[in-house]
Amino acid sequence: MGILARLISKSRPHLVPGKLLVTEFWFEVPLDYSKPAGKKLKLFGRTASKYEKPIVEPSPAEKAKSAQKPFLVYLQGGPGFGNPQPQDSTLSSHMLDRGYELLLLDYRGTGFSCPVSASTLALVGGPQEQADYLKHFRADNIVRDCEAVRKFLTKDYPPEKQQWSIFGQSFGGMTSLTYLSFHPEGLRESFITGGLVALDKGAEETYQSTFQKVIERNKAYYEKFPADVADVKYLATKIREVGGEEGVPLPAGGRLTVPLFLTLGISFGKYHGLDIVHNHVVRMKGDVDQFGFFTRGTLNDLQQAMGWDDAVIYSVLHEPIWCYRPGIASNWAAERVGRSLENFKWLRRDWAGPQALPQDEPLYFSGEMVYPFFFDTSDELNKLKDTADILAKYDQWPSLYDEAQLKKNTVPVYAAIYEDMYVYPEDSRRTASIIKDAKTWESSVHFHGALRSHAADVFKQLLQLRDDTIN
Q1: pLDDT value of residue 62
Q2: Residue 244's pLDDT is what?
Q3: What is the mean pLDDT of residues 172-180?
Q4: What pLDDT score does 54 carry?
Q5: 235 and 99 assigned to the same domain
Q6: Same-domain status, 56 and 169
Q7: CATH code of the domain in which 95 resides
Q8: Domain AB hydrolase-1, which positions (predicted)?
Q9: Residues 6 or more apart from 4 whose CB is under 8 A from it?
Q10: 378 and 407, same domain (yes or no)
Q11: What separation in angstroms does the CA of 352 have from each of 22, 238, 244, 338?
Q12: Is residue 1 in some structural domain?
């Protein structure tokens, strides 16, 4: 692949809080790399380096040489989320001192890079056209975008600086595995946190594992807050009573139903996640006890906590990211697996409601799963219901991983494995054993979001792996 990225604009470097020197870029890349002359997408990115004012001003030649720091590219989690500003990124605090220049490139369809929404997809055409368009928004093309941008940015660099380092969190770790599989020549090293997924598990097999972690977290929740066994069922009954079959109207559109309420369990995989969910329960019950209904502030708080319709790619492409080779369709795997489990009877069409449960049996919350009912309860996603169904049935996804290449990998890989509700730890260990010479740090006390919540510890451990100071 030649240089397929075209620079549209580049800002002058400017200072931001934290003494970072930031430059903003807009690039143009092909939607479909097999048709480079066809439709184009615009990608937005920022580079950040540590601002230093030297005591002795270097010569122009010395300045030009020192400006060519090796890039470290952050691959964001998701899918569907843009990058933070450089001053808000933990990589700025912990990696710029190591001599890198940070690149925060919004994936296609996220952040400022051709963001995907119901309104922007309407410009593409009907459901089939939208689905065909979105088929180009998985990790394989994210990696192609990165390579196109890398070749452009480093075209005048000396050969030893043309490779770059990547740092993949969660879905970004999955993208890193795709990068290592198909374009290792562009990489100097790879850091992965919470993203070593199985190389040979589709959505159904993945959810069979992760639902078990969700069950464990529910047990921990109700052990910590035993009164919530009754309170959660009481609130579920009240949601049905106040909202009827359609659900309770939400401030920004859409409706709160019992199944949607139970997706708050996605927070169980976060630090203090049990307390986050409990706080919602306390607030909701307080409303009902005092007023007999849910106040606007409470409903807005719930809607912000879920946010399924803010990151549209997350909802329509979350299951397809697990389709690792042709011949696999996601086919609403989370719903199918959940319905087969007694703890998630509320996913079944014939569920009688919370009143049918024994007094001491809790209602279990769900985790990081996407369900078809999202497209009924969200005004934004409802416009994409047919599009999502087409993608769920599609089974000719290109391969995401090359196990043979990973077995002979020569790119240094440093990875963190957590006590993770989103990425099954056993899968992470197995994948790490496949990648030649991968080094891992395991923690039973850190969760999926450790890169944000306990950044100092994570970077210390990963850099020790890199610097080989662990005995």
Answers
A1: 54
A2: 86
A3: 98
A4: 61
A5: no
A6: yes
A7: 3.40.50.1820
A8: 71-218
A9: 29, 30, 33, 36, 144, 148, 151
A10: no
A11: 56, 15, 14, 16
A12: no
